[in-house]
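Re: the 360-residue chain
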Amino acid sequence: MNVVLHHTNIRIDFAESSLGQHFSKAAIHAIFWTGDYAVKIFFVISGFLITSSILGRWGELRNTDWKRFYGMRFARIAPCLLGLLAILSVLHLASAPGFTIDPQKTGLSRTLLAALTFHINWLEAHVGYLPGSWDVLWSLSVEETFYFAYPLLCRFVRNRFVLLTIGLGLMAAGPLARAHAFNDIWYDYSYLGGMDAIAIGCVTAIVARSERISRVPRWVLASVGILLVSVAWFRAIAMKLGISYNGLDVTVLAVGAALVILAITRMEASEEGKSWLSGRWTAIVRWYGRNSYEVYLTHMFVVLWGVQLFRWRHISINAAPLWFLGVLVVAGILGAVVARFFSEPMNEWWRKKLGVVKAS
């Protein structure tokens, strides 16, 4: 949701609306200019969910069936990605506004190669930002590169100390990669600058199974986690503490998110917590979460065409709040439709085709 708001706000400045003028600069930034932080939190969640799935399916990381892992990952990622690339290619060739790659930066074939080999982030760092619907693929580049190596490490690095050392190395490399990035794009999009958050998520899934963590009250985990997330999320605080200049802001954010995840995991184990988490107060967040991959890949269609309609109709900037809400709703619906009628059926079909699940 935050990413959708961020990408809309880049093109329609919420702060210029009559409602936006009643928001402080800190609030505007926290709501509309933190899409990069939202992706980093998603990385933590991704690492947690993938590792939890591995542990639930195979019991131990060393038992990971890497061939089966790759098959399931392909079935989940490939259909939507290939479908998106096909649509974006047609829009580019049709010179559709907002979807056409600048030939002075790079060409369609080079961009497709980068998308299919997961180095869109590297390409953008060298040629500049691509159109929005191509740009979102930077995070997939970081994620899938990590998950290419992860099952092999789990399966073939038998020594837990060595595996832990690699994880800690990634966590330490993250802030170093951000602090020494050669430009602003690489600061946000670099491999190591995102993999530390995924590694923190992976470790969180392992820690969640430890008896020691069960002794820590969940309110302590949640409180400390929310505090750390807030310190990084509100950039003014992070800058005063000096953690924005050395790349530690994302590390603090990721650790905070990990603690909140641990608290939520503990809540899910109790009837009271389970009831609250599955209640109507969290319904919209859960709805977006279930279709997060599809929403993320497709939301720029809603954002770009929504912004074009906003400008073509000369709609008053004071209507921006309603427009933002509309974009959020339509992006969510589009993601849900894609998931229901394309992504999920293709995921199931490919799993059967690849032999990673038994046909019914």
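DSSP finds 18 helices and no strands in the chain.
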